[in-house]
Amino acid sequence: MHSPATPTTAADADDPLRRERDHLHSSRAALRTMREDAESLDISDVAGTWVTQQVLHDQIQRRIAALADLAHTPLFFGRLDFLHAVSGDESEGAGGERFYIGRRHVHDAVGDPMVIDWRAPVSQTFYRASRKDPMDIAKRRRFGYTGGELTAYEDENLSDPAEHQQASALLAAEIEKPRVGPMRDIVATIQPEQDEIVRADVSGTVCVQGAPGTGKTAVGLHRVAYLLYAHRERLAKAGTLVIGPNSSFLSYIEQVLPALGELEVAQATVQELVAHVEVRGTDSAEAARIKGDARLAEVLRRAVRDGITLPTEPLVVTRGSRRWRLPVYELTEIIEELAGREVRYGAAMESLPQRIAHAVLVKMEHAGEAPDDRVQDAVARAREVRALVKACWPPVDPAKLVLRLLSEPEFLARCAEGILDEQEQRAIARPKPARSVKTAPWTAADAVLVDEARDLVQRTPSLGHVVLDEAQDLSPMQYRAVGRRCTTGSATVLGDLAQGTTPWATASWPEALHHLGKAGAHVEELTTGFRVPEQVIAYASRLLPAIAPGLAPATSIRTGQDSLTIRHVGADELVAAVLTACREALAREGSTGLIVADARVPLFEAALAGAGLAFLTPGTETTAEARLTLVPASLAKGLEYDYVVLDEPAAVVAGEPDGRTGLRRLYVALTRAVSGLTVLHEQPLPAQLA
Ligand SMILES: Nc1ncnc2c1ncn2[C@@H]1O[C@H](COP(=O)(O)OP(=O)(O)OP(=O)(O)O)[C@@H](O)[C@H]1O
């Protein structure tokens, strides 16, 4: 690595570092000019309505925001020197043989690029070129920054057979930076196997199985940013969405995409997606499991169509002095034909009057009349026709329907016949029938059923791309809810079977993808860990045979020693020992997470307060001043801290309804640390870890 021992001066015009700093300086100036240009755009003369003006104004504001020069975010992090000129397609107008790779495109006054967006085709080479396959690269240069200042660079002469492969110190330093604050982007250090997933084709759904800390979340977020760059028109219009397990997790990741210049990606939990009813109740694990079972989709389909009845009397429509009659068998044919089609219930209901009116029109024509479309519309709106449609194809209110299904055992029995056995029906039936949709104690699983019923009535609009993180915890019915939000788009499904902690957790990815409506999607595996030190992941992986027998343990790029401490303490000494461990961790740089069983949270809230140790709740940003977070085990998923103090593993395991889920919860807790993990226990450790 080249790091100048003494500061460079103007006299060092030939010093390569000096030249790179100059390029940084002029790139920043160019970015400023681009921003000023955007700010000075005057749209007052642009013709158009107030609405189009407003849209244009918003677009310009977004562009200005995207062109912000963030002081601590380097404008470029790499340079590529090609052996030959790059073809026009790939270079995106860059034309030359040398490219600076950064977070966004920056061009000079005449439009020549000074920094190329990391997502441009030519940048792919930066992430993928290797000594084995140099991809026409003579030199790959990585830059090191200290507080926004370019202070070092490092070269790999990939096409020089005499040069030996060396581990990159800058890469290692970047990956090993202490963690404070929210999740950061990884554009400077995306690894080749991650890049393959990031740039996978937009039309296909990708599923990533990866051990803790292998970068699944990071890859998913960079993939949306990449897809928005490569398919901006289509995706910006259709919309993109990142789905995470809870709001703490979403706040932890919410700044990554804006830092990459993408401000328009929506974020939500599955619960928020299906929030059509107010969730106030909880289900037993058994009831929730059955309600989340994919078989419920057929039960609901039957329930929605349960009201369809065939007419018993002919339809008589009066027009002027004449009466037109449609016999029962004709009406029956129309309704049966419609019921046999795979159209949404609501769409069918809307088309039924026209179909009936059409049959009446045919009668008129046979009688020698020449009715036109207006007559058909009038017949369709006739009182007699509306009454018939209401009786034979009644409107369905999805929430009321689900409420009825759960409250009326006979109705449930009819819809679930041959699908759910009696015991299963009893398990999901409400003990007390609820009076109304508003007052019913809806549960999270009920809300998903309502969402399914809504979709049976009216098609749910599809987005362009959906990233589903921590997917392993979704029930089949939740997968369906996500799947209908990307029927015409694609998805990135991220998860780890070993971290599934719901009673219905995913057992196999092909099955999950089937429920998502993306059967046959590619399943990729990431196995290199970037978070958890080798020692710690090896320890946690001892649980794998019990929690996910088919999965191989992850490796880690962090090989540092002394990252794991396990301490057994005597009776009544645990809380004090935990507080001491927290103080020790806080004496070092970076964030500290104290993970405790949910039931022990109040105990530690009091203990920390009593000891004068200020602490945050998960999802609140850690800062240099506030670095300790008290994390209930149930919220630890997806988060990370430099140092983790884990209190009483046996209590974490005991907090779950069954042993395997308990060990999985513990596996999640054990894999949150970046630099060091301290496990403190009074009770015996689970056998696998003893
Ligand atoms: N290529 C990379 N360069 C630098 N840091 C990386 C890279 N890949 C992942 N990381 C970092 O490793 C940490 C773990 O990544 P991430 O949270 O995406 O993993 P995960 O697989 O989603 O983990 P979990 O299963 O625990 O949710 C993050 O701090 C992330 O920024």
TrEMBL record:
Residues 1-11 have a biased composition (Low complexity). One of its GO terms (biological process) is recombinational repair. Residues 1-20 are annotated as: Disordered. The keyword Cell inner membrane does not apply. GO terms for cellular component: cytosol. One of its GO terms (molecular function) is hydrolase activity. PANTHER family: DNA 3'-5' HELICASE, UVRD / RECB / PCRA DNA HELICASE FAMILY MEMBER. This is AAA family ATPase. It comes from Streptomyces tateyamensis.
